[in-house]
Each structure stands twice: as C-alpha cells, then as structure tokens.
Amino acid sequence: MILTNAHVVSDSVFIHVRRAGRTEKYSAEVKYFDHESDLALLEVAEKKFFKGVSTLKIGDLPDVRDKVAVYGFPDGGDKLSITEGVVSRIEHINYAYSGSFLLSCQIDASINAGNSGGPVIFNGKIAGVAFQGMHSGYDNIGYMIPAPVIQQFLKDTEDGSIEGIPDLGISMQKLESPYLRNYYKLEDGENGALINNISPGSPSRMLLKKEDVILSVENEDVAYDGTIEFRKGQRTFFGYIIQGKQIGETITLGLKRDGKKISIEVPLQRSVGFDRLVPYKHEVLPRYYIFGGVVFQPLTLNYLMEYGSVADWYQSAPVELMDYYLNGDLEFQTQEIVILSQVLADKVNIGYHELADNVIKTVNGVAVRNFAHLVTLLENSREKYLIIMDTQGTKIVFDKEKMLKGTNNIIRKYMIKSAKHFWSP
C-alpha cells in the first residue's frame, strides 16, 4: 500500500503511480480515505511495482528543533526533491483540506504544490506526511501530519472500514477569568475548560451537560485555555488524547458539575466533522436549485474555498458566510445554511440581478430549516407571491407562476443542463 494525502487523490477517477527514477506507470486504487485527517491508502495490484522496495516504519513524534527531511515532487521539476528543515512548532491547527482541528508539526522546510503526500523522515522513520504550506509573504513555513495522526488512521483501517477520528461533539470556553472560575466554584489550583454547547445528535448529550467544567482527560489536567501537557513544557488542545483513540472506545473525563467533582466514562461514538454547520462535501457534485434564474445552494466549505486559492480564500470570502463557518453551531441535526448564490439575469427577476451570497431566513414567513425544506417551500406554496427574506432583512418578492414558467427558458439561455441537482446530505 502507498500512504498519501486524501486531497491528492480526492475526486479522482483514474490513478497512475510511478516510482522515482523509473518510467513505467502502474494503476492504483484508493483503498481507504479519511478526509478529516487528510490521509489515504492506495493499493497497487501489480506486485512488481514494489519489487526491490523496502518499507519505511512509522516513527515517533519528533521534538521541537529536531532536523527532518522532506521528500516529494514539487512543481518545477520531475525528479525527487529532498529538502531539510527543523521542527519549529508542534500544536493543533485547522487542516486546510478538511478544516479539522488536529495535531500538526510546523517545519521550516519549504512545502509547495507537489510535496503533498510525501514522507517527512526523522531518524530513518516516517515522522509525518507533508500536506500544506504557508505562502503569500511567508517563506519556508510548511506543515506535516505527524506520526500520532497517521497511527490513528492506520489502526482505523484494521477492521476494513474507516470510522474516523473521535470527537466529543462539544464547544468550549476558556476559563481565564478568575471571576468565571469562582462562579463555577473552581478551587485554588483547579483549572479546566467550560462546555458551552453540545451538538445535536451527539451521544455525549446523554452524559455531559452545558456548564460542566472539564478538569481532566484520562487523568491529564486540563488548563483554563483547554490545553493539556503532552510533553514536558509543551502543550496542545486536550482533544489530542481523544483524537488518538478509536470510535467505539471510551474516555475518562474529570468534571466539575454544580460545584461537585465527578468522573464519568464517555463512549466515543462519533467522528470529527460530524456536526459542522458549514461542512466540506467530498466526492459529490454540489447541490443547487434554480428557480426563475435565482440560484439557491446549501452553504459548504467547498463553496467558500472558491473565493481564492488554498492560501487566501478565507480572506476573500464574504464575512457573514465566514462567520457561519468559523462560529456557527448546529441547532438541530438536519440544519443547513441556505444561500442565494447568484441570479441568472432575465426579465422575470429584474431588480434582483446584483444579489449574491444572501443567507435565506424565511419563505412566506416560514423559517428555512435546510436546502430540501427551501425547495419544498418554493414549489408547494399556494400563494401568488413568494416573499423571501434574508438574514439582513432584505425582502425579495417573486410572482411564483412567472418564475416557474421562466425557469426552462433561462436554463436553455445559459446552457445549463438541469434546473436542479439534489442528493441526500
């Protein structure tokens, strides 16, 4: 098998692999994907591809200031490139491909397009997989997916399927303020992180409560900023312990609830990314609905990333939409943010041609729950006029019959095959 990044082979229909220094190419297929950790395993049926190849073992997490070597095929040449760098940081970051908040190592070796999926070697073993870099004014800042994340992924494949990286399904607040700690009756020397939301559908809802304070995870003390000491003098997000386990295992949490210390066992039954209000959708075509030239879509991370390159899309995307992505929490399990993404100009939608990226709030006074609900409200309404309100208070009024009749003409004029594309979310 070949270990690489999920984003390297995502959406692929045919994969060829070639060894460095060789010319012959071999067909490969994706055996396992984990989009959240941005890792994938490829299977090559032809045994001779691996003839004379010795495998590399997965090593341990390197330390800050350790020297590593990055292997890959970055743009600018066809031969194997090897660059050296030093581990400068070990901490949780948001992975660019999935948005997941996972452990990463920052290194000062340049990681460019083409490096993705290449091994990062330390002491003759795989310390990580190169997967993203910082550009736009930053020199020699790259990131690798470290060994602990790789080990979790490989163990996950052992039963023949991918369940994902465990997650509690909570959001938390720092307890930096001494007044806040006093309010929740933390004693001198006690620290922790406050649970301020539990996702709908999360199994944790049966065991955890809003306003619980997480004091410890597997007997490791949690600081008021939500970190644990994973090495002497080095801290990262307490989820590091949880993310190293497998779906189906349990985790021991020490809590402060109503001023009393308790300890509970929480089964890990759901994965990272399960409950994102603005999710990334993999391996599927985008959903859309064209109604009289007005294009409606569910808001996804894929949509936001169309606003620029991997390095700068988040700076160019609309502020309101980014706020839903960064700060939005599900209120119920099937909730989706629905946007009016653009208007295909026609006489039936005059006055609204400039609308774009409006977040839809109601249709004829009924709150929109998700994309399918919006389509139902538009198609099943018996009113002559459809009154659509966005979250900024903009009122959009259409004559339903004229919009319906105009739809087919509009999609022909704009050479669009279908007025809608649905799939089950």
From TrEMBL:
Cited Pfam families: PDZ_2 (PF13180), PDZ_3 (PF17815), Trypsin_2 (PF13365)
Keyword Hydrolase appears in the UniProt entry: yes
Domain spans labelled Protease Do-like PDZ: 282-419
Protein keywords: Hydrolase, Protease
PDZ domain boundaries: 166-268
GO biological process: proteolysis
Transmembrane segments: none
GO molecular function (one): serine-type endopeptidase activity
Protein name: Serine protease
